[in-house]
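Deviations from the work plan: none for this task. Representative record:
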Amino acid sequence: MSMKKQYGQPKDNYHAKIIAKSIFIFIICVILTLICLIPIYILIVNSTHGHMALAKNPSNFWFGDSIVDNFNTLLGKVKTGAARQYSGAFDTVQGYTNSLIIAGATTGLTVFFSALTAYGLTVYDFKLRGPAYTFIIAVMMIPVQVSSAGFVRFMYQLGLINNFIPLIVPAIAAPAVIFFMRSYMKSSFPLDIVEAARIDGCAEFRTFLTIAIPMMKPAIAVQAIFAFVANWNNFYTQNMILKSDKLVTMPIMVAKVLGFDKNKDYGVDYLCVTLSILPIVIIYFILSKFIIAGVALGGVKE
Amino acid sequence: MASAAQRRIKSISYAKYGYMFIAPFFLVYCFFQIWPLIYTFILSFQGNQALHGQWVGLDNYTTILFGQGVAQGAAATSAKFLNALGNTFILWFGNFIPQILLSLLLAVWFTDAKVKLPGKGFFKVVMYMPNIITAASVAALFVNLFGDSKYYFINATLINMGLVDPEATIEFVTHPVISKIMVMFIQTWLWFGNTMIMLMSGIMGINPSLFEAANIDGANSRQVFFKVTLPLLQPIMVYTLVTSMIGGLQMFDIPFLYHQGANYSLDLETAAVFIYANFNQGTVSQANYGYAGAASIIIFIITAILGSITFFMNRDKDEIAQKKQRKRAMKQYKEKMKRGGLTL
């Protein structure tokens, strides 16, 4: 007896219902995609329009022709009041360089020392191991702002204001990254390898460098991307510490441009914002597979 | 029979390496985070501006919480702080609830085996993108798009479509209520992709045979969602709740930068902005380190309470019961040994 004869027809509109639901979900996803992408699109489009054109008709959906003019204003090649204001506050090359130095250094330090600490917590069995790990989890929850008043005052006392050091050195201690790496090690790092290395006469630190780090490459890669993006985008701490024009980073420059009251040039405004997010967006679309995979990895909790 | 040499070899302990490996983290953390935290605590008991460094006891706390203090303008400071606290919670709830609902809905749809959705990978990439953009740039972008006057994109488009009168444009940036809604929207826009992907990975971690069993038993989508998916997602939901809570209490970039003109908008002043504004005015003798410190400690206490409540609600009751059982057995065993191994 066929299935249909024995169990009867499936509900008549089963297929239709599924297709209707799929179409509905698809439309919602398309709407959300538009909401995500349209601001960026308008941003790029408006960067190519001049101030006068934007003042007359701010609602543009296609590119304009003033991109070179806007760049000239930004680089200070034009002698208007607006130009001096913008080129003084927003030096693209300086901003990129400073942001790159800080983001690169912090990323390197964070992943290396977090891997080191996670390795120490997983491989070695010492009395304070449990309390140390509990401590790390507990302090993960402390908001940055809570200690920032004391942090800034402390940096004033040490004379480290307006200096890259308070932004780079604390990156050695990143509880969230340690938590992630330790979960990763617990599930995919065989401790027998360490024993084998010891038998072969390998020193402990060398074991870490030559065996553990290559084995943890996926976790390190993911955390490196996140650390880089987070530090590139970090406005709060950088704004607190960096004061002089030569050392400011991208987010601070954008904030400065935002605060201009008179002599506003709309086209250059948009151009500044575009320049500040362009590198990150490009890197994101190149590495998007890794980034999404990394976020998904962080979501699996035993 | 184990010789003395063999006995010695067995007891090589690598524990000291453990301490060495975790030392850099603890050294740097204590120097750059623990000490500033303690220092903030100390600062909260010290004076502001010209009185910095002098002990004033609980004066800062009474000033910002109740408006009764030694300094002039105490009532104003208290009004500002309570306003900031209120804004923090309003902005957090208004952002968190739509975001969780939207992300959960999307996560369930994306992981449903029956739904045929083309381009899932593309949608994931696009929806996560807002999360990686600098928050400062996002604030600048939205101020430029949603500016108050008719010279800005959204108002101009609405005027062109005939929906808005050129003289009465919608005040997206300066209106007290609308600007808050805009900030909530921006925060949701920034984070919904992240939350969605995390919830998706949580759902995919659920054993699919449970879903199959539910389907065989004839459960429709809603029943599957409420009785299978949601309960098993509890650890991830707790994690999302905690991280969102911490993030919400720290909300700084958008409220601080979503304004037109030179200063941040007082309608959007959150606790983090209040703290920052107080310790960042001018030199050490012009800044209100005391108020900033007191506000920071209050935020810290709130975070600790909320975090403990969340962890308490999510505790593994079975494991705690087992631990208690084991402790009791251990105690009984010790008593027995004290009595010389006799059972009375």
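Chain A touches chain B through 100 residues (CB under 8 Å).
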